């Protein structure tokens, strides 16, 4: 089975990322009558695994891979195990994914590696959601399911981490590395996870229980996986010890997630099931925090007719354009399959909007990820589109009518919204812009009247203290009034520095994303700023004192860092530059002496094989010495 996706033009030539999605082989279960694709493992006879799902793959070292599965039945169809685990040494996926063995408790019987009580409303099952290996220790993130709900909804007691020090034969559930759910609201953000090992950290992307939550992010040093206090949560600006501060890095609905870094494209990839779109989707980003692109269809809902879900990427895909992943189906047999798609150069990568030209709407009976206030929908193949076949519209005789989409943004950051709109002749009160969700306060918009032909509208906006905003194209109808919209985009501004002018710093002490060495803080409304009301400072009579920020970058890329700095008259040992984290090796810096007036300093550097760097302005104090800094900028050349 295969499906090719067409290209899509928005301004310049653009293309969806995955093409040629195809099913390569069965991974688990028996071969049904009439099925002709390979089945290298025959798990029903070799391991008494007649049905199972998931298939989370990670590199266990030594040229081998672990593959973890969820609820498992035996060859007779009885659900006997909550999870099983396979080992694979197969490096040629073109003809299927072969196991070397499965972890067994008796010969020919795959072992349940994580126990569960199997009692409804207590603990129905324990299901793995992610895996990673650090050194010789292996880790599995799992969820303890309290009970199953409606389709796509289930409720967890907690999520946790188990580890193995004997090559996966036995696993211990950590009693402290747990994220307890609220069993009244069931809304803890870290109940299902995907692991990514990167630059000395393990990043944990997570969603609430079920398939309808947004995507959140935490990270921990590799050696701190079992220390719950070592985890830091992305709050939209930086890393925060408070789990409740976590803000979305991508908008769901997201279920059964997988995340990887592809060295061929130098992009992070995220896959998950979007149940509202009835499709498995993929996003990509230049850094682990984003900005994540809009969703692109990896496997459409009508691909097999088998009720498919999840796309767990195989690490062998991480260095080339061929993406191999394990996908589950629930009909007619509950099992897993090896899939392949080819990734093309992603020219939509900077656009945060999902389905920006409404083209995937032809394959779904619902409007997600778009939604409407009032009356509206999708013109499917009616000849009204600006490009492609489809466009969005609203039309009514009265009231407010808008077509909308939520996106995740970085707080206090500049964005540009663009879209092409045309209207009925009687439109006098149309609006295109960004606001807080649920028709909240407007943060940027433009008003338009009659637009007889498609006209590009542009709205710059700053996200303010918000992590999620709502984009809209709408009108106040007066008689039969309509608008059509197509080819919508949102792109983040070029400056990678958060709180670059310190205007959003809430206290006189540096707060996320800024931090200090020695004695440093914020001059708030004291008249010392280069622009605006605030600036940063470092001041002391001895030692190294600096203002710093971790900024995520693309590896092996050239960047330009600037800031405005002035100093006390006695400063003779100041430095401005970029280095690796925690005072690591310097990538480049410039030394500065006394600067009686604000002076712009500039440093260019190459990021090397790094995904984040530390920018800084600081000085070695001798006597009462100070610097003031403002209006930082870091841009990719």
TrEMBL record:
InterPro entries: DUF4185, Galactose-bd-like_sf, Sialidase_sf. SUPFAM superfamilies: Galactose-binding domain-like, Sialidases. Residues 40-340 form the DUF4185 domain. It comes from the Bacteria. This is DUF4185 domain-containing protein.
